[in-house]
Amino acid sequence: MCLPAAAPDVDDWEYFKFSTNLKIELLPQEESEDIFEVVVVVRIWVDRLFLLAPKLVLKETPYCKPNVINGTMNGNNVYRTSDLLQRHPRDPNLWRIVGRADDQLMLSTGEKVI
To answer: Which of 33, 66, 74, 76 stands 20 to 30 A from 41 (CA)?
Structure first.
């Protein structure tokens, strides 16, 4: 379990920050200018192989990547969460979840909830 180092203010308890280990893209939604969909991008790292000659090879990082890949964006593998976020009015690094892009949740039992 991960707990914050300090308790948030009473007005900010529903907001969170993204981990710096993740590469996040935010897709603006047409309905509102302050609502975004979260997309987790798989980071690319450079691996130097010394087989016959040194060369640089781009690979997906084995660390801090989503377990599910459900799309591509700009040639990178991504996980589109379908979570809709709204930025904090005073702190641009804080976000809160306001809904889902697909407006339908699938429970572990297989039941769909709107």
So the answer is: 33
Domains and CATH numbers, the chain: 10-113 (2.30.38)
Q: 99-111: per-residue pLDDT in tens?
A: 888 776 677 787 7
Beta bridge partners of 54: 50
Gap between the Cα atoms of 39 and 43, Å rounded:
12
Q: How many CB atoms lie within 10 A of CB 50?
A: 7
Helix or strand (DSSP H, E) at 10: none
Name residues whose C-beta falls within 8 Å of residue 82's C-beta, 6 or more positions apart in sequence. 37, 100, 101, 102
Q: Which residues pair with 100 in a beta bridge?
A: 83
Chain segment 40-89, per-residue pLDDT in tens: 888 766 555 544 445 555 566 666 777 888 899 888 889 999 999 999 98
Of residues 17, 25, 16, the one with CA closest to residue 74: 25
Return the H-helix or E-strand segment holding 106.
strand 105-106
Please report where in the chains the tokens 């090879």 appear, as a residue.
Answer: 57
pTM above 0.85, yes or no: no
